[in-house]
Records
---
Amino acid sequence: MNKWQWIGIILLLTAVVSCKEKAKKEQVALPAKTAPVFKPVSVPMTYTDQVQQAEYLAARFWDNLNFTDTSLVHLPEITEAFSVYASVLGAVPKGKAVASVKKTWKEATKEKRVLHHFASLFEQFLYDPNSPFMNEDLYITILEMTIDSDDFEEEERARAAHRLEMALKNKMGSRATDFSLTLASGKKMRLYNIKADYTLIFFNNPGCHTCKIFRDNICASPVIAELTRQGRIKIVAVYPDEDLSEWKEYLPNIPGEWINGYDEKLALRGEKLYNLRAIPTLYLLDKEKTVLLKDARFELIEHYLATVTAPGT
């Protein structure tokens, strides 16, 4: 497990403890004959290693849940517990996370309404671009199971098939799709021609407030500043839309040392070269243009770069 994942493990263990304490407090307030809706599993004291604790939770998180109880679909407690579960999935190796997701899905198939509710929770926490637990790579497993399930209507399976097609583009570990970029000078260049140990692609729009926050975070990052000074990283700001007058007006707001251009042929969206579900979107690539992080939060990218470029790594 990479060092940058330890933050997620620490956060998830803190969240699990908080969730347990909340469950205890709520249980005291309930009538004597009323059982708690959901009681998280307790990690045995023999599991002292944080990785083992996280893996135990991933494997057994929903063991105390009655998946045949349709009243679950209306309870906020399940959504709250799912946020903890999503953090657990992000803190274990992919194989363990996939196994956990498949087990949860299988249990949910005992009751169709519960299955649909859990499918919506997986979408909310693993697929929504605004979710801190977004993990499109893991959500692929959900899409595959949705497509193969008779518990979903044809329209729902078709939507899942389209999402799967897009999610499979530029997966982490694969080589990013090459594309052409036109600079303000009119010069054209291609992604593959950019020479650097790391390339940070910043898909953005001039009028986007969140894009400004991302831009400011990148500019303020000491890690990226040092890598830029060393010539080891290139920041590529890409405008994927058609309003060039707006893009040109915004040119002074993009740092001069960045590569800043637009998609003249609108191929990124038109040919669906990249899955741009939301703007801004960040991709981190290595020297060979292999995708290291896809549609990732800036904090994760910064921590990743700090880890892999630290002395001795």
---
Amino acid sequence: MRRQRRTKIVATLGPASSSPEMIAKLFEAGADVFRINMSHTQPDKMRELVKAIRKVEKDCGRPIGILADLQGPKLRVGSFKTDSVMLKNGASFVFDADDTPGDETRVYLPHPEILAALEPGHTLLLDDGKIRLVTTAATKTRAVTKVLVGGKLSARKGVSLPDTVIPFSALTPKDHTDLEAALDANVDWVALSFIQRPEDIAEAKKITRGRAAVMAKIEKPQAMTRLNDILDIADAIMVARGDLGVELPVEKVPGAQKQMTRAARRAGKPVVVATQMLESMISSPVPTRAEVSDVATAIFEGADAIMLSAESASGQFPVEAIQTMNRIAIEVESDPTYRGIINGARPEAEATGADAIAAAAHQIAETVDLAALVCWTASGSTALRVARERPGPLTIGISPNVSTGRRLSVVWGVHCVIDEDAHDQEDMIDRACRIAFREGFAKAGQRVIVVAGIPLGTPGATNMLRIAYVGASAADEN
């Protein structure tokens, strides 16, 4: 089964989409990667979902990616003497280390690391940004704030701190447990929530030890300021627009999305755009025009993947939401302006042999009428460098490693095929042509580009490019 688009689709599983039958339907509708939200999924349920996805993968014969999304640190206020309190504009309000129930003047903040990090002028956002306060005085046990935008506040509401770098790990004890369970279940990607700095990624990588790729969710302004450092160490990033839109002014989020998409492409790392893409389809079989435009914008920008959250996890129309995304992607990628926009954002090739080969493949594809671009890729690095160029022809990634094929399922334009490694260069070219024909990318008499690393099986050694004809023998054997 091959997709008719380059942009990948990530579907979140949940109450509306946890059955094996529904997972199969979502894959048939266009899902390339399945996300398991560990905020709402126990390890035993996660293992059931992984088993069901692998069954679909076996039935369809195509690698499917699985993303375990860790909850991350949840910062919340303590309790109140009454059900809720009303914070009035201009009033003073105190956060402190006293665990007694709060009132209209103060509340317990069960995070001493926040109190230690707050400084005068720092902003605090409560209840998804509905209430805004600014710090006027702070000690290690007490912070005095002024209410800028008031409202009703109840117990255990969330706290966001857009100006404050908090010295704690992005991995909570729950995350450690969930991460080990996800690694034992052989998931392909692990997403880290609420990261602030590259050290948060390094901590997770010490645990994964290559057993899963690590995706950094960018949802805090602190992470935006160190985006390039994070990209250096992460395997991919996610533009998590929900929480980012709480901590940043909403008008800044579209620009931040563009910055992240382009930075990830320059780094040769996949980027996923997420949150509220087709929100109305939670309860409606059709999206709004603004939502269609939002999805299209992410595709025009060259995002590797676009993601559905509640739309597929708990909505009434999960299959229709996937089908809608699929249709939007196909339409955008066939738009006459698409190729010009994608090429306009093309980064300069880095001064490496692998990037020179990938750039040459793109240039040849622009000049010569080619049916497909075929990459032999053991680790996935060759396919990533080619995808960075956003070539016109679709790319076939051939790998002997199923884990590589699954991880590449989130990468722009790469159709993954698992096959044994080539025996020599001629076998490599011959099988590349046969696979291109078998998978429906090329017809007899058409040409393909073959990109690989010699000697075979050496990770990151992309150094060979060859144009090959798909002969009649490829058609006869298939």
---
Amino acid sequence: MADVAVYTLGCKVNQAESDELKSGLEKAGHRIVMDVALADLCVVNTCTVTSESDRKCRKLIRMLGRRGASSIVVAGCYAEVNPGDLESLPGVVRVIPNTRKEGWLEEITSLLPEGGRGGAGTWRRRARAFIKVQDGCERGCSYCIVPRARGRERSRPPAEVMRAVSSCLEAGAGELVLCGVNLGRYRHDGGTDLAALVRQVLSAGEDFRVRMSSIEVEDLRDEWLAEWASFGRVCPHLHLPLQSGDEDVLRDMGRGYGPRDFLAAVGAMRETWPEAALTTEVIVGLPGEDEGSFLRTLKVLREAMPARLHVFRFSPRPGTRAWGRGDVPSPREAEKRSAVLRQLAEEWRLGYIEERRGEIRGLLVENLASGESGDTAFGTTEDFIKGAAPGVEGDVRTGEILYLEIRGVFEGMALLGQAARTAD
């Protein structure tokens, strides 16, 4: 038995892969530990979507070395795109690119010593379990390194997905988040699309709900919205990436849709699935983005009024069509625009919660904290509100869904109060 620490940077697909690795290691008799001082081997699952992501990966690996990690395996997207950057870092004994990730459990296991340090296992399965169902991208957006890092599009066989579903449910997950680099393009053997897969996942039981991680505008179908709205156990929440609200910038990016298409998709969602929350993301400082482009993005966002908005700075990546472009805003201007959007994003997020004061939500309990006045449950509602419920009563467990009343905002989160233990 060996003790392994696993660190993950980046997207939900990476998180899903790391969770499956941890599960596989545990089934093989090894322990997952959080403390590097207890680990016989550290695994770092990397991200390379921006230059800042690369920097964070290198910083983490060096930090692990300083804290005593003598055996570090580096895997993931950075390992695929620039393995040479990682091989020379102190403590790195193996670099596993994404092209070898399907067999990384066996490869990592082969590096483990027969006798571990005897640390106490501390990993606990997520109450919101991430399940990868699709990988790879063939869109070829001008700014994006993901196609090079993740390869061609491919969908996971439904039987394999269902095995992962069963494993997560057995571990007590109350919400399954279906993840993919291009989730809306899930196809298997020509007959199973994303909607059919969701139906199969829901057939695994009754005491859990399903959430989609992100769907591109051009992949979303009206019939999916109608079907998911009718189920009751599909979380009323869609993440539809915008990236820019300017027609020319989107065309130059190679996104395959325009701002009117985005707003039409949002309108269809709100008409067919009115309780669904919209979240989105934008990239600031893209090539060709002038002040007018930014103002048009603001206009689209104000019309869409997302419940949550993620703001990213454009990061030039070698190997992409946007690399070396000179028509990018200055760093100072890009930061100024980012600050404007971040402030609006926070106003919209808090406003969304306040507008729903008095409504009942199902809070999936992800963490519990004990205090003088009882336990406080922290978690996520079906429409993706992060919230806290102080003074919860009874034997509450992580993975359970508590039906509570939204009472306002406290310390940046929704404050929820006890209303009823079940949906009834």
